[in-house]
Design brief:
This protein is mainly α and 180 residues long. Helix content is 69%, strand content 9%. It has one domain. A three-stranded antiparallel β-sheet has the order 1-2-3, covered by helices on one side.
Amino acid sequence: MIQLLRENKKLIRFLSICLLGYLFWVVVYEHWIGPKQTIDFWLCDIETKEVIQILKWFGYSFQHVVELDFKHVFYLNGTRLVGLASSCNGLVLFPLFSCFIVATNGPWKRKLVYILAGCFLIYHINLLRILALVLVKLYYPDSLDFNHKYTFTILVYSFIFYLWYLWINDYSEAKHPAHE
């Protein structure tokens, strides 16, 4: 057993950092961020306004209403279409992505830049997901549930996996060992 641990020291370190980092996020979210809903509300508000602005560029006149449960809801001509709950704002994706980068070897400056760039891209992929779901509800309402649960979830997580792949193959210490 000890030999196995020694042989897999890097893997165990990587998995431990990922797990501890994500557990840290869960504890912080569940005890401080989540109950107050301030950050979630702020992020949902920004995302909703940005999606509506994009829709306006294409000639749609959507409105946005915050309902009692703090859900940001898209309306078109007074008709309720979809709501953006805090669980769909993408906030959880940022620490998930970041823990992986932090757990790998590489210079901290490069990690920080990549994390910020990755979170920026993930935010915008999530905006596109929200936009697409609004349009799916408008034009193909019967397929909203399927697309919400599967199609767009797979696309967003595939994008995050692609960013991790790029990090490992193009930006991490494995490709730039002299910069440590």
